[in-house]
Design a protein that fits this description.
Length: 495
């Protein structure tokens, strides 16, 4: 009986994740604060790789290499925009958000922080923000499950649906058990695996060309892809570049800033996180570009560009190593799914159930409901993934734009503009979300296409949301004195 070493590697990886979930359950799930935010005691290195791994998701090893495989060096503008956005996010959002959320009566969720920014526990802003989180994260989680389905069907000759169920089953298991600490620790491990894989795959592909004829063909194809998009359209490059704006409004990323043990440790987290991100993104781009050149030089075909990482892993490495490389894809997928499930659960429990249905719920019952909500959101996301409504990058781009435009401007104004009013924040969230929906899903162009086919919806939606926030805030009641005092107290705590 022959042993499938790839399957052995994946099984061992699953066992490791479950073990981490069990450890976290023993260490940090005594109440909802620990379950949803790790008791605000997470270290800088874990924070950095957890934020990075939960950010990059399956698109890092599937979507981005697939885009580079198709368009060549033109995908670099997306990468540059993301690195700049992440760096600025660490500088202007992370420190203030960490201090502000703790001073605002220890806010555990982004909607809770938004509401308490205006000295309220129950507000229309909190309700709207939580609904937006649940809706967009259900779609976002589905994108990760699509990636999981593609991985299993491509690498192990299983059905797509089996891949979806296997992915969601393991993620739900360790997330339900260990909560935020389990998610953060598994993200750290997954971030390390992703980094190693994204260095190894393009390097081995690059040195694997043997004959002179193949080497010449490879070099020609590689150079063509490097220069393919040298004369790209300005509109297309700007559209890719402004993906970085989305960082300011991604709840599953900025919640990491809220959980770090001290805002003074954020500079260390920033250095680790940005360096990890730069190396990983370069590796993802090279996987697509080197992979495309390799495929053409050896005369083979690839039906789905988003599976180039999987293809190279299977043909260039021993099955045991290939299994761990495929585990890197699962790492990217699961790190994001688990973060999104936990944030969705926190909004369902902390921002909806406890605020509008049962304010005096016991800590024990809160934990049970939080875990149940993880399962519910995962089930809904699985249904969307099974419908196969689009590729990984398409689903991610829609959810990324939705959060970036709905929450990004409001988060920035909440932290940096004391004249922001609750009415202005509500208007901004709605304006951003509605603009993304109209721009991305309503066929307004003469040929029946959406505006997003010409320009990515994030930038226009972000600008419209910001403009609406300023106009409405200027025309509504000035924030109360206590709101101003909290704003100044946060500012002074950081000076």
């Amino acid at each position: 009986m022959s042993i499938d070493y790839s399957v052995v590697s994946i099984v061992l990886y699953f066992v490791l994740l479950i073990a981490i979930g069990f450890y976290a359950m023993r260490q940090s799930t005594s109440n909802n604060s620990e379950y949803l935010l790790g008791g605000r005691q997470v270290g800088p290195n874990v924070t950095a790789l957890s934020a990075g791994a939960s950010d990059m998701s399956g698109w890092m090893l599937l979507g981005l290499p697939g885009a580079a495989y198709t368009t060549g060096i033109g995908s670099i503008w997306l990468a540059i925009g993301l690195v700049i956005g992440a760096y600025v996010n660490y500088l202007i959002v992370a420190p203030k958000l960490r201090v502000y959320t703790e001073l605002a009566n220890d806010s555990l969720t982004i909607p809770e922080f938004m509401s308490r920014r205006f000295m309220k526990d129950k507000s229309h802003l909190r309700l709207i923000a939580s609904v937006v989180i649940i809706l967009f994260f259900t779609v976002y989680t589905a994108s990760g499950l699509v990636a999981g389905g593609k991985l299993f069907s491509s690498a192990f000759a299983t059905s797509y649906s089996f891949g979806v169920f296997a992915t969601v089953g393991i993620v739900v298991a360790y997330t339900v058990m260990g909560g935020f600490l389990a998610v953060s620790l598994t993200d750290f491990v997954q971030g390390v695996i992703m980094l190693i894989a994204l260095i190894a795959v393009p390097y081995v592909a690059f040195i694997s060309i043997d004959t002179v004829a193949q080497s010449t063909s490879f070099g020609s194809q590689f150079w063509e892809l490097l220069t393919k998009e040298a004369n790209f359209e300005i509109v297309a490059s700007i559209s890719l570049f402004y993906w970085g704006l989305g960082y300011f409004g991604q709840p599953h990323i900025i919640v990491r800033f809220m959980a770090i043990s001290s805002h003074k440790k954020l500079p260390q987290a920033r250095r680790v996180g940005i360096n990890w991100m730069i190396v990983s993104i370069i590796g993802a781009l090279l996987t697509g570009i080197v992979g495309a050149a390799y495929i053409k030089s050896v005369g083979t075909q690839l039906s789905d560009p988003e599976t180039i990482f999987i293809h190279l892993s299977q043909i260039l490495f021993h099955p045991l190593v290939a299994g761990w490389l495929l585990a890197a894809i699962l790492a990217a997928i699961m790190s994001t799914i688990s973060s999104q499930l936990l944030v969705s659960s926190s909004s369902l429990v902390e921002d909806l159930y406890k605020v509008y249905f049962s304010e005096n719920v016991s800590p024990e019952k809160s934990l049970i409901i939080s875990r149940a909500c993880v399962v519910v959101v995962a089930a809904l996301a699985s249904l969307i993934a099974l419908a196969e409504l689009g590729g990984v990058l398409k689903l991610v781009s829609s959810a990324w734009a939705g959060f970036g435009a709905a929450f990004g401007p409001v988060i920035l104004f909440s932290l940096w503009w004391k004249q922001l009013t609750e009415q202005g924040a509500i208007a901004g969230v709605l304006a951003g979300a509605i603009t993304v929906f109209i721009w991305g899903y309503i066929p307004l162009l003469p040929n029946g296409l959406t505006l997003s086919s010409e320009f990515y919806e994030l930038l226009p939606a972000f600008l419209i949301s910001s403009l609406v926030i300023v106009i409405v805030s200027k025309r509504t009641q000035v924030p109360c004195e206590k709101t101003t005092e909290l704003f100044e107290l946060t500012k002074n705590s950081l000076s």
